[in-house]
Specification:
8-stranded mixed sheet, 34 strands, alpha+beta, 631 residues, 8 helices
């Protein structure tokens, strides 16, 4: 990888020679090493904006304005109308970015200045160093390019001689604590230059406690952890059932991110101050019961009062749960954003409806959580995205490649998939009942199910610490207490989807024998973005096939155990992976490339699983695993 300074030293500068109008200017850009910044996923024109020099457009148009429908004291969620006006010649390359935090001079960033000083260039070569939270082309307003919103700006002898055009856009903004600014650019995403900027807009309560989400700390169902975000570093309270608990407060900084200085998104242009992450444990609860809580303080304000439900205690008779992988988030407006997961909105809306029915006790999200990948503000948007369900039920997680992997992270995969986050935001926002936060594997029991939850990104080879933990954890399961053993992780062992890398054969050979030896009933993975279910499988061979019950549902009888059933369930948001036309894997029994989630219902005699398509509510696949109590 080239050094930051070398790519800038040999950068080439191009200057536009002609300015045809107020909004069709192509500014000088720097042709620097894009390869240097390919250490994050899904490169797009929008994502590499900050690698390009920006100039104030040499525009003499005195009429340009950008106005925001609300200029101060934004609430915690707003849909803002942003209007650009006074445009002499609208083009398809005109766009508006939402910047946070705002800067008096967007084109002069102190962090970017380091690059210029390294080259000895002291001239003003401004750079958009704070990555836009989101952006929209003004042509999203269908009346913009056709100039249907006209305004006469100059008359001569009663005749209009200068007419300008306008366009309006809607931006979804949530409380990210720092103020925001809207910037009007010409030149498109590839060659942007600044036309004008709005007045910075601030949130009314940047210290407000927000985005509370629940998790279980053990298998009793009598304690629940609440984690939330605030701009205030002082401890706050969670109040519940006449009691209160004070929060522990943590945060993280750019120094905690991976990558050498200025080379990873998390350390450089993707950084956004996370505020302070508060966490408190509510104790003395009853399992399978409904309570209410609120969190905050007198000084910064309180959340609404929220009802929540505790999960059933481990060893009780029944559990209803939802499980999925690879969700992420998507804009609630027409913006371009970094790394959009198009199915995430329909899935979270469907899961919210499921939770509202009262038939869900807990949720499991098995890796690739937010897909922020070094663009830290997107964690706030993700926490807002899941809040309708995660504030009401235990939301348990497993770490994935897009949370953990980076060349200098403690990951076994030397890949840049986390954008430099190397697990830090993940285990700060989602503290799970692990022995240590940097060892993100754990087990928990709810109802009749023992869940063993691993990290596929940390060492799992034989004799590794995690391998020994898996071996001990699964061997210790009391099947008279929790008859079902379900194994959860991110990277798959089996898939019919064709990809460059595919499943890790070493992972299969190291871990699959443990699954068989400990009679794991069901294995669920994400990573591949579709749904696929296997036979009872071991070593790529079917050891047992299901039979149809009276309702035509595939039923595996584990009274005479043969091997685990496996399913890939990474279809909760990321763009779907299609299956090849001709699949010849005898072990692949059901394949669906649709967005959705999996609904589970466990009693002591039956584990029933259903894949639910989020757009229709249709059950696309269902199967049962049964066993007699003596098994």
């Amino acid at each position: 990888m080239p050094s930051p300074s070398s790519s800038w030293v040999f950068g080439l500068f191009f200057t536009a020679l002609f300015l045809p109008s107020s909004s069709s200017f192509s500014p000088p850009i720097s042709i620097s090493s894009i390869d240097e910044f390919r250490n994050y996923t899904a490169i797009s024109e929008f994502r590499i904006l900050n690698r390009r020099f920006l100039a104030e457009c040499p525009d003499t148009n005195p009429y340009l304005e950008i106005n925001v429908s609300k200029n101060s004291r934004l609430s915690d969620e707003e849909y803002l109308t942003v209007t650009v006006s006074g445009v002499l010649l609208p083009t398809e390359d005109d766009w508006v970015a939402m910047i946070s935090p705002s800067h008096s001079d967007v084109s002069s960033c102190p962090l970017a200045e380091i690059f210029y000083l390294q080259t000895g260039d002291l001239s003003n070569l401004p750079l958009l160093c704070h990555y836009p939270v989101k952006a929209q082309f003004v042509s999203n307003d269908p009346d913009y390019k056709s100039c249907k919103k006209k305004e006469c700006k100059k008359y001569d002898n009663g005749k209009c001689v200068v007419t300008t055009c306008a366009g309006s856009l809607t931006f979804h903004a949530i409380n990210i604590r720092t103020d925001i600014e809207f910037v009007f650019f010409a030149g498109g995403f590839k060659t942007p230059c600044i036309l004008t900027r709005s007045t910075p807009v601030s949130f009314a309560s940047p210290e407000k406690p927000l985005y509370g989400h629940l998790s279980s700390i053990d298998s009793t169902g009598t304690s629940m952890r609440l984690t939330w975000v605030s701009g205030d570093k002082e401890p706050q309270l969670v109040q519940y059932e006449g009691k209160s608990e004070e929060s522990e407060v943590v945060t993280f900084t750019q120094d905690n991110m991976c990558g050498t200085d200025k080379t990873s998104p998390a350390k450089d242009f993707g950084w956004h101050d996370p505020g302070y992450i508060h966490s408190a444990v509510m104790t003395g609860l009853q399992p399978s019961s409904t309570f209410s809580y609120k969190y905050g303080s007198e000084s910064v304000g309180w959340s609404d009062e929220i009802q929540f439900r505790t999960p059933p205690a481990g060893g009780s008779d029944e559990l209803r749960f939802v499980v999925f992988g690879d969700m992420g988030k998507a804009p609630r407006d027409n913006s371009s954003e970094h790394y959009i997961q198009p199915g995430s909105v329909s899935v979270i809306e469907a899961v919210t409806k499921e939770v509202s029915s009262g038939n869900v006790d807990s949720i499991f999200h098995i890796g690739d959580i937010s897909y922020a990948t070094g663009f830290l503000v997107e964690w706030d948007y993700f926490l807002h995205h899941i809040n309708p369900v995660a504030s009401q039920l235990s939301y348990m997680t497993a770490i994935g490649n897009h949370e953990m992997d980076y060349p200098d992270a403690e990951s076994i995969y030397n890949l840049p998939d986390s954008g430099g986050e190397c697990g830090v935001p993940y285990w700060t926002y989602f503290p799970m009942p692990t022995v240590e936060k940097k060892k993100p594997w754990y087990s928990i029991e709810q109802g009749s199910v023992h869940f063993t939850i691993i990290s596929t990104e940390h060492a799992w080879a034989e004799n590794s610490e995690q391998y020994e933990w898996m071996k001990k954890d699964m061997a210790s399961v009391d099947r008279s207490k929790t008859p079902w053993l379900v194994f959860l992780g991110h990277r798959e062992m089996y898939t019919s989807t064709q990809s460059f890398l595919g499943p890790d054969a070493d992972f299969l050979s190291a871990v699959e024998p443990l699954l068989l030896a400990n009679k794991v009933d069901l294995v669920l993975f994400g990573h591949v973005h579709n749904y696929e279910r296997t036979c009872a499988i071991y070593n790529s061979e079917c050891k047992g096939m299901p039979k149809k019950d009276g309702d035509g549902v595939d039923t595996y009888d584990n009274s005479n155990y043969t091997a685990p059933v496996q399913a890939v369930i990474g279809m909760a948001g990321f763009s779907l992976d299609k299956f090849p036309n001709n699949v010849n894997n005898a072990w692949s029994l059901s394949r669906i490339s649709e967005y959705g989630y999996v609904r589970g219902h466990a009693t002591r005699e039956e584990l029933k699983m259903e894949f639910v398509e989020s757009n229709t509510g249709k059950v696309g696949d269902s199967f049962r695993i049964i066993k007699s109590q003596s098994s």
